[in-house]
Amino acid sequence: MRNRLVHASAHAGVGILATLVGIAAGHLVAGLTEPAASPVLVVGSTVIDLTPTPLKEWAIAQFGTHDKAVLVGSVLLGVLVLAAVAGLLARRRFAYGAALLLVLVAVPAVAALDRPGAATSDVLPSLVAAVAGLAALAWLTRSHTAADRGADGATGPSRRGVLVAATTLGVAAAAMGGAGRWIASYRSRTTVVDLPAATDPAPAFPAGLDDRVPGISGFRTATDDFYRVDTRLTLPIVDVDGWTLTIDGDVDREVTFTFDDLLAMPLVERDITLTCVSNEVGGTYVGSARWLGVRLTDLLDSAGIDGTRADQLLSTDVDGMTISTPLALATDGRDAMIAVGMNGRSLTREHGFPARMVVPGLYGFVSACKWITRITLTTYAEQEAYWTRRDWATDAPIKISSRIDTPRPLSTVDAGRTVIGGVAWAQHQGGIERVEVRVDGGPWQQARLGPTAGSDYWRQWYLPWTAEPGRHSLAVRALDGEGEVQTAARTAPFPAGSSGIQEIVVNVA
Ligand SMILES: Nc1nc2c(c(=O)[nH]1)N[C@H]1C(S)=C(S)[C@@H](COP(=O)(O)O)O[C@H]1N2
Ligand SMILES: [Mo]
Fold it and tell me: What is the arithmetic mean of pLDDT over 309-336?
């Protein structure tokens, strides 16, 4: 009995190892061709796209920025369970196990071809995975069966044969997987492109409260610390020389710009705070940067939109992902742009290299298309963007919000003179006019504000506080330049952004 169990788990192991070899070989080929078509990743991406919105929001809330790692891990785990079954089947009859492996590989193959913007060659990683996986399964099953047969006669060489085959394949899988990973990250490394100076520069950037209030968010978010939110599991590899941006749809004439065309146009520089609709009250999906780009209206004017019936800008990225933006808001005089620079350098791959849209005052999912290649003038009735199909709002202005950065929730603070501080934002609603802090449910006290970098940018704030020993609750709310007070009414991020007041508890000792 025990012997049977040992044999069974050995065969399951054979299935798992063979599958890992296939996955690794596919990952290597994907690294060389299209990283997004790597078998496990492409299945993960498909799962992201098919996941119902409530479940996706739950996963983001549970796992935060680890949601993608959890997803890839779950897909891998599921595959390996089936791989173990394939190994057991192969023991009965090789063809059964092989058939299950082929079915397993058919899933990423179909998913790769089904991706928006997929090329036929994207099926290659899955094909290679199939060949490598089957070859490994055949080799392992053969040497294992030989070892089984030899077991009674206790012939050493065949047992050693299994070990040699397994070790060789294990090492090969690790090497191929590692190489694929390295090649993909090497190809998607940040390339810095020289950018001209702005023709319409932003005012000198004021010194914030960074040094005066320890623990407060920097007045400007460093690019490497800037939150990243997108549906991708790999970064797109875009060659700036071949890249173009096309404006089409209901326009007088379709126009296409190269990267150099954009750089030759007047460039504006603006300080703008970006916010994700998935940001929870007190959350970290918000960042502030200095952007350099071409005015969106300059680009639209060159295509001619005076007579357009469009009410929507439908932006498409290099892979066919779509983001909608209300045309009326994007062209109402705000500093909407196609940005090519962030914080004094060209965009990083994470944040949309070589170009992305930035529209102050609208959540990123309805404005900030990264890796943009096309802007189509159309109507909401005619065409639906990625998140519109998933029932998110189409008209989604950023809600007034404020966050406590210091002290941290549930932290212990030394009794005596200290400071409560954070940031608040009300992009394109006159900016932040006033921030108020409430201690232990008492009266709202006016906090001191840091300098302003314009109404599309967040503001730092702080309140000196003499902390008495014990447990205290701290709350914050903001008022915008139009006199509106941040609402206490709690809403979830879906479908148009969270609202409510952040209240934290700290211990003073
Ligand atoms: N191509 C593409 N652009 C995208 C997204 C995406 O998934 N794909 N996500 C959007 C969302 S939801 C947000 S909040 C912003 C985030 O921009 P960042 O990652 O540079 O902070 O990008 C937007 N642009
Ligand atoms: Mo977002």
Answer: 97
189 three-state secondary structure: coil
Closest CA to 330 of 247, 221, 263, 223: 247
User: Which ligand 1 atom is the nearest neighbour of the CA of 276?
Assistant: 14
Residue ranges of the domains in the chain?
2-187, 223-390, 401-508
- CA 95-100-106 angle, to 5 degrees, is 120
Q: Determine whether the shortest distance from the Cβ of 351 to ligand 1 is under 6 A.
A: yes
Distance CA 405, CA 283 (A): 10
Environment class of 241 (CB within 10 Å of its CB; exposed 0-12, middle 13-18, buried 19+): exposed
Q: Provide the CB-side half-sphere exposure for 450 (13 A, CA).
A: 27
Q: Which residues pair with 272 in a beta bridge?
A: 289
Ligand closest to CA 494: 2
How far does Cα 297 stand from its chain's mean position? 27
Q: pLDDT digit string (tens) for 100-139? A: 999 999 999 999 999 888 999 999 999 999 999 999 999 9
**231 CA: nearest ligand 1 atom:** 7
Q: Is 49 exposed, middle or buried (0-12, 13-18, 19+ CB in 10 A)?
A: middle
Q: Is 0.90 surpassed by the pTM of this model?
A: yes
| Burial state string for 393-408 with b = 16 or more CB within 10 A and e = fewer than 16 | bbebbbbbbbbbbbbe
Task: Give the pLDDT confidence of 337-364 residue by residue, as tens digits.
Answer: 999 999 999 999 999 999 999 999 999 9
Q: How far is the CA of 390 from the centre of ligand 2 (A)?
A: 13
Which ligand is closest to the CA of 230, given by its number?
A: 1
Domain 223-390 class, CATH top level:
alpha beta
Q: Whose CA is nearest to atom 19 of ligand 1?
A: 228
CATH architecture of 401-508: Sandwich (2.60)
